[in-house]
Amino acid sequence: MQTEEIKQLVINALEDLKAKDITVIDVRGRTSVTDYMILATGTSKKHAQAVCDNASAEAKAKGLKPLGAEGRDSSDWMLLDLGDVIVHVMTEQARHFYDLERLWGEPSEAQEVQKSQEDAE
User: Fold this and answer.
1) May I ask the CATH class of domain 3-120?
2) In the prediction, which pLDDT does 29 show?
């Protein structure tokens, strides 16, 4: 399966179980670990687990074997590693606390200016 197909499969699986605030972050060129991170919010730990389980089941149904899964049993942050796509499903509190969008999102103009100045030195 191609990366874009995996990404769409995951988005559909998340939407099927009503995950909130689905965000896709393109991290190509910033890490060699994966191409995309997909973040979604569950309304509770149980909902987040169900959402992550659904994404895993849909991937397996299409012949994809997840490389790993973390946090399923007792966490408010579940991770599903599908190689080129890594899925993070969190409770709202965990998503706000860890703020992966800020960490992995596009650098702000101020950060780009600072980096340019550092590179010039």
Assistant:
1) alpha beta
2) 86
